[in-house]
Amino acid sequence: MTSRPDIDLNLSPYLQGNYAPVLEENTFDEGEGGLRVEGEIPANLIGAFMRNGPNIAWQPDHYVYPADGDGMVHALYVKDGRAHYRNRWVRTAGFEVEEKLGRSCYGSVGKIRMPDEETLAAGGPPGPLKNLANTNIVYHGDKLMALWEVGNAYELNADLSTVGEWDYAGALTPGDGLTAHPKICGRTGELVTCTQRWDAPFYTLRIMDKNGKQVMSRVVEMPDRAVMHDMQICGKYVVIFYPPAFTNLDAGLTGGNPFVWHGDRPTRICAIPRDGGEPIWFEKSTFFSWHFTNGFQSGDKLYVDYVWMASVPFAQDPNSGLERQTRNMHRMTLDLKTGEVSDEKLGPTYCEFGRADDRLCGQRYRYGFAAASDTADWDGPNHGYNGVIRYDMNSGDSRFWDYGAGASAGEPVHVPDPSSANEEDGYLMSYVTHPEEGAFLSILSAADIERGPLARVFIPTRVPNGFHANWMPGLTL
Ligand SMILES: [Fe+2]
Nearest 5°: CA angle at 476, between 158 and 169? Predict the structure, then answer.
């Protein structure tokens, strides 16, 4: 195992507390000195819960949350009711050259610089941005993929060893940044995804069939490359938000601020007919959103559920405090006939990482889940989510499960009961870190989150706060 020098965590609030990186790759089986299971893992769950997130390996010279940090995947495999854990960095080309030279070789997204000669001579990629492969982990078309949004996917093996970059058999060309938030259609098994580029055309919608073969690609005309992080299937449409948030690479490369926010401009919303036809544009008073929860179509109306916030939540200055701003679950209604947009806040609870039963992606559904804080009263330099919220999207009723003061809960993933088509019969999995009890995988009942965990799998090492998780049914070691 590589021994690493200490890293100055004061560089950013989001390198401190449970945002701090772990600098070891661990492997634990259930039993003595390893994992401890409290309660009972549902016997018919076989697969892996995997979560990606940023985890720097060497001293950086700048750090912007949530844009920097090498991808590290934390996997909890379950088979025959027994558990196994491992965490591994995604060994991208940039990560490999930094391992070889024993230092960071690339700049921050907030302070962009070209790699130096030693880096290039050691085989480091020549561009200014390192593919971090740190945002999401998705299984589709028989491939396990760690996703970023400014480059190719990185394919991993089930044991988290890295295979290499995956460009969809040449369907993606250099400069295409594959989104980290594709959606798998609940009806067809297709992957609805997109690429964005620094040069025009800026945005291309793509559909990969259930085997991972590209079957459609369509340019959507846009005036510039905005910060468009997520996308949502809504019946026969794909909805994206086009906020007035942009990146100025040229300014960044000459020492300036690469982030541009035009708070005086509206946010545009685009509904792209999935099977052809002209995109329909809408406008709404300025907002920003990282994530959709789900969406569906009913006649001429699209219902889009998402996490709202007032402005872009990051800046070049790591201490801007923007990341802590209020965010709430909203439902937006788009009228395809009249062009009217209406929007409703579903509740006052601070939440992020909205999820639903993925089998109903793009279709009418009932329950939305999110990591949530019922206090938003953080006394530290960064923030966390002490619980999980479940919204009944029909009635607006919400339920909250509190993991306790100071706890930090990650994205809650709805895991279906393999023997039932009902949302309520599923489970809700997330990594949680409790200040006294440490890190565990929590398994809640989707029908009754207030009952508390049906099982907790305690992990004898820290699992830092991260980004996106998914349950990979049937994927085991
Ligand atoms: Fe995301």
Answer: 35
